[in-house]
Amino acid sequence: MFPKRRIPSWPVLAVVPLFALTACGGSGGQQGGGASASPTTQITSAAAKGDIGTLKWDLPAGEPSSLDYAHAGDHSSNVVVADLCDTLVRMKTDLSIGPGLATSWTYKDPRTLVYTIRKGVTFWDDSPLTAADVAYSLGRNMDEKVASNNSPNFSGVKSVEAIGSHEVTVRFKQHDELFNKEMAATSGTVARASFMLASECPGWRVERSAFFPGQQAVIS
C-alpha cells in the first residue's frame, strides 16, 4: 500500500489517475515454414491528459465475495484487494520477484528470512508504514480464528516478528522455497494493524455507509 492509492472495485467509484491502455496484436506467420512477422503494439485509447474525478469499473466476474485480503479468493475480490493494498514484494514483467513494500530480503539461514521494509511509505491518513504493520498483516493469515484463505502458504511458518521499525523476520519450521514468491500475491498483502484491529473491513478505509452489497462500493 503505497501512499494514498485509490483505485476502484466492481461498480466502484474512486479518484484515480487516467492512464492510456494498450492492446497487442500481430499478423499471422507465413505459410511453408517462413518466419513470422514481428508482433506490433496498437494504441486503442487516447493518451491521458490528466486526472479524472470519477471512474466507474464494472467487474465482469461480479461482486467481490469479500474486501478482506484474508478472505479474498475469487477473481473479483483479488482484483479489488490488489488495488486497495500493496504487497511485500512484486512480480515483475519477466515473472521474477522484485521489491514492493520490502526493499530487500535475505535468508540468514535456510529457516530464517529477513525483510527490510521500505521507508517513507504512508497510509491514507499519513501514518507511517512500520514493521509492526507488516508482521501483523502476515501473521493474521496464521490465525485460526481468521480462517484465512491464504493459510496454506503459511503452513511452514513458525513465526513472523517485527524487529525494530523497518525489519521483519520470518522463521520457518523447514525451508520454504516458495514463500517469498507468494508474498507477491494476496498472501503478501500489507495493511495498517491498528485499523485492522478496530474495523470490520481491515486494512483500508471503506465507509460502511457507501458500501451497498449487490450494487456498488464507493472507495475514497
Question: How would you portray this structure in words?
Answer:
This protein has 220 residues and is of the alpha+beta class. Helix content is 13%, strand content 26%. It has 4 helices and 12 strands. It has helices at 75-84, 131-139, 179-182, 193-198, and strands spanning 12-17, 22-25, 40-43, 51-56, 89-91, 97-99, 102-109, 112-117, 157-162, 167-172, 211-212, 216-218. The strands form 4 sheets. It has a 4-stranded mixed β-sheet with strand order 4-1-12-11, with no helix packed on it. The chain has a 4-stranded antiparallel β-sheet with strand order 7-8-10-9, with helices on one face. It is globular.
Task: Outline the secondary-structure elements.
Blueprint: E1 12-17, E2 22-25, E3 40-43, E4 51-56, H1 75-84, E5 89-91, E6 97-99, E7 102-109, E8 112-117, H2 131-139, E9 157-162, E10 167-172, H3 179-182, H4 193-198, E11 211-212, E12 216-218
Parallel strand pairs: 1-12
Antiparallel strand pairs: 1-4, 2-3, 5-6, 7-8, 8-10, 9-10, 11-12
Structural class: alpha+beta
Shape: globular
Number of strands: 12
Number of helices: 4
Average per-residue pLDDT, rounded, comes to 78
The major pleated sheet works out as: 4 strands, mixed
Q: Tell me the series of helices and strands, N- to C-terminal.
A: EEEEHEEEEHEEHHEE
User: In angstroms, what is the radius of gyration?
Assistant: 20 Å
Strand-residue fraction? Answer: 25-35%
Which strands sit side by side, in order, in the main sheet? Answer: 4-1-12-11
- Report the helical percentage: 10-25%
Low-confidence stretches: 1-33, 200-209
Distance between the termini: 14 Å
